[in-house]
Design goal:
- It is a single chain.
- By secondary structure, this protein is mostly helical.
- It folds into 2 domains: about 5-230, no CATH class; about 280-460, no CATH class.
- It has helices spanning about 5-15, 15-50, 55-90, 95-120, 135-155, 165-215, 225-230, 235-260, 270-280, 285-310, 315-350, 350-360, 365-390, 395-420, 425-450, 450-460, and strands at about 260, 270.
- The protein has a two-stranded antiparallel ribbon with strand order 1-2.
- Helix 7 packs across helix 8, helix 13 (about 365-390) packs antiparallel against helix 14 and helix 13 (about 365-390) packs parallel to helix 15 (about 425-450).
- The radius of gyration is 23 Å and the shape is globular.
- The protein starts with a helix and ends with a helix.
Length: about 475
């Protein structure tokens, strides 16, 4: 999966500010496309099409956020197993099988999201709340399915190497969503606005899948390979699932303890925390792009040289290659953390001005600063976890995400039970710090004996 970084780095090495901007935008689209499509689309809608949401703006925004949150919490583990399955197929140059794996995973996701979506919208009591409740329910089903499919495609589209095209697709999806809200919202109020927004998501899904068919045309539909990947790497599946839960744990606690119930639904929102947290999560993008373009592309060749040495060279040569690999890993993590730290520190200092300028007086600068700090730790944790994945330490990645989840939940629950809203974001900080500590300890200890680990794995495979 490091291929995207190498391609973008080649473009970047040609020089020029336009190429730099292009690479940054392309990297952003691939690593955070669906999330940015949501944020950008909602910003445009609320800023320029607010009249279309006048009937029930809270119901509209809550539905979009819940669709994103629960699509990740339900399918997070599947995304990781699917990525591993496809990576193995691409390594074996089995492009048609990779195309089949994509289609099969999309169909499974569509079926599950339809069932889950139906279960979630059936309890809604929207008559008297909005004017077109049936259209709204249909819109929820379409939107949840489209978002869930978009995450699967996001795991696959880096193979296309058409990064400008991917960027344009996501921008086009945001524009279609905005136009759909204007067109359908004006005629069918909240239900029409949500369907218009969902159409933009469907547009992105259809175009991205059409782009994959040129190189990865499927030969058959079968879930056998995906289920085999889940069985072979159960801790990878569990790590992906628990990572999504860890990310949303305290948010869900605060929704249902401190939040306001959305009329006609079971959903609750808590703007004093929701608003700053969604802004803070966007600040993770510089670190993600740096990892994709620099950290990963510098580390991967050292890893490959080390693995080749393990199979053919002397003990001294193996140790030299291992040392070079460890240095590359350490430098990459340090520089990525430094870049993310500079971005986070600048925004923490400017938090009072940013909060007033973007959100008005309703957002606490203290909460914004705490969430920005938490997202910095989250970014560091993600880098550590990805390196654990590189070495196939899936059980240790799972335990690291378990620490993140358990501490985040454990700290948020007493805050909720006591009604203490002074330090919102503190549990997210504690969870991120715990996850970093556990993942860092595992990575530091495991990498020192990675050569012996590989020998043991090879011996086990041979027997």
């Amino acid at each position: 999966m490091a291929g995207i970084g190498f391609e973008l780095r080649r473009v970047l090495q040609r020089g020029g500010i336009l190429r730099f901007l292009g690479v940054s935008l392309a990297g952003t689209a691939v690593v955070a496309g669906p999330w940015l499509l949501s944020v950008f689309g909602i910003f445009l809608i609320q800023r320029f099409a607010g009249l279309m949401l006048a009937e029930s703006p809270l119901l509209f925004s809550a539905t979009v956020v819940y669709c994103y949150a629960f699509s990740l919490m339900i399918f997070g583990g599947l995304h990781y197993s699917f990525t591993r399955q496809v990576s193995d197929l691409i390594y074996a140059d089995s492009k048609r099988e990779a195309g089949s794996a994509l289609l099969s995973c999309l169909l499974l996701t569509l079926a599950v999201s339809a069932a889950v979506g139906a279960a979630c919208v059936l309890p809604l009591r929207l008559r008297g709340v909005i004017s077109h409740p049936e259209l709204f329910i249909a819109s929820v089903l379409v939107l949840f399915a489209a978002i869930s499919l978009n995450w699967v495609l996001m795991s696959f589209i880096s193979l296309l190497r058409s990064y400008t095209g991917i960027l344009l697709v996501y921008l086009g999806g945001a524009v279609v969503s905005f136009g759909g809200v204007l067109l359908l919202g004006g005629r069918y109020a909240t239900g029409g606005a949500l369907m218009g927004y969902a159409v933009g998501q469907v547009f992105a899904v259809l175009v991205l899948y059409a782009m994959t068919l040129g190189r990865f045309r499927p030969s058959a539909v079968s879930l056998q390979g995906l289920f085999a990947a889940v069985r072979r790497y159960p801790f990878l599946f569990l790590a992906g699932l628990l990572y999504a839960w860890a990310t949303w744990a305290e948010k869900i606690v605060f929704w249902f303890v401190f939040g306001t119930r959305v009329p006609g639904s079971w959903m609750r929102v808590f703007d004093p925390y929701d608003v700053p947290i969604f802004l803070a999560i966007l600040t993770m993008i510089p670190g993600l792009i740096y990892f994709t373009i620099e950290t990963e592309t510098a580390f991967y060749p050292r890893l490959r040289e080390f693995l080749r040495a393990v199979g053919a060279d002397s003990w001294q040569r193996i140790q030299e290659k291992k040392s070079a690999m460890i240095r590359s890993l350490a430098v990459g993590l340090r520089e990525q953390s430094l870049l993310q730290g500079i971005v986070s520190a600048a925004l923490i200092l400017l938090a009072p001005m940013i909060g007033r300028a973007i959100f008005g007086p309703g957002v606490s600068p203290v909460t914004l600063r705490l969430t920005l700090t938490a997202v910095y730790l989250h970014s560091v944790f993600l880098g550590l976890m990805l390196f654990l994945f590189y070495f196939e330490f899936y059980d240790r990645a799972f335990l690291s995400t378990l620490a993140f989840f358990a501490v985040n939940l454990a700290v948020s629950l007493p805050m909720a039970l006591t009604g203490d809203m002074r330090l919102l974001g503190l549990s997210y900080i504690a969870g991120g710090a715990a996850g970093c500590a556990v993942a860092g300890a595992f990575l530091s200890r495991s990498i020192r004996t990675i050569d012996r680990t590989i020998f043991i794995r090879a011996s086990g495979a041979g027997t």
